[in-house]
Amino acid sequence: MKKGTIILLIIVGILIIGIFGGISTYNNLIQLNESVDAQWAQVENQLKRRTDLIPNLVNTVKGFAEQEREVLLGVTEARAGVTNARTPSEYAEADAQLTAALKQLNVVVESYPNLKSNQNFLDLQTQLEGTENRIAVARRDYNESVRTFNSRAKRFPTVIFANLLGMGQREYFEVSEADQETPNVEF
Predict the structure, then answer these.
(1) Per the UniProt record, which residue ranges are transmembrane (predicted)?
(2) Which residues contact 69 (CB under 8 A, 6 or more apart)?
(3) CB burial class (10 A; 0-12, 13-18, 19+) of residue 89?
């Protein structure tokens, strides 16, 4: 074979390998991006479950603690904030407000033992606790998907494809500073 033909075959071979590598990288980014979107949908699903439970919880508590209307109103308003949030940072901020309102509600429960004796309240409280656990798992899974995507999208040569395709870094769901503080319970 001629030297020029060999060089041409090498160049064509490199191009074919590059094309297949690019296709593989593209498909991998799409799969990881879809995984992040699916995990975010799970976070939204669990937050929706919680916001659906809260009106029932509030109505049950209202019957026993009219004097604590301000706390219950705060929970309701915080729930509305979660319902209206659209981005991870908006959800995180609204979730922090809802968590603070729920902490105040739990202080009310501790202060008024007759609330704890109401079976409906206990059932709803158990469901709410389970929902909080589901939200924590959904957040963890979402952040793990974001970590996987971001670490893959930062690697060379994937970073080139990610930038060309507009698939930059995804946003983590971060806990606010207020959520990191230990609540102060006074009796």
Answers:
(1) 7-26
(2) 62
(3) middle
Looking at the structure of the chain, the number of domains it has is 1
Asked whether the beta carbons of 72 and 102 are under 8 A apart, the reply is: no
Rg (CA), the chain: 25
Q: What pLDDT, on the 0 to 100 scale, is given for residue 68?
A: 59
pLDDT in tens, 64-87: 656 556 777 788 888 888 888 888
* Residue of 182 and 38 predicted with greater confidence: 38
pTM over 0.70: no
| Coarse DSSP helix, strand, coil percentages of the chain, rounded to the nearest 5 percent | 85, 0, 15
pLDDT, tens digit, for every residue of 99-145? 888 887 777 666 666 655 566 667 777 877 888 888 889 999 999 99
Domain membership flag for residue 187: no
What's the CATH number where 137 sits? 1.20.1440.20
Greatest C-alpha distance within the chain: 95
Which uninterrupted H or E stretch holds 110?
A: helix 88-111
Tell me if 182 is assigned to some domain. Answer: no
Position 106 in a domain: yes
CA distance 117 to 61: 11
* Position 186 in a domain: no
The Cα 170–Cα 155 span in angstroms is: 15
pLDDT confidence tier of residue 187, bands split at 50, 70 and 90: very low
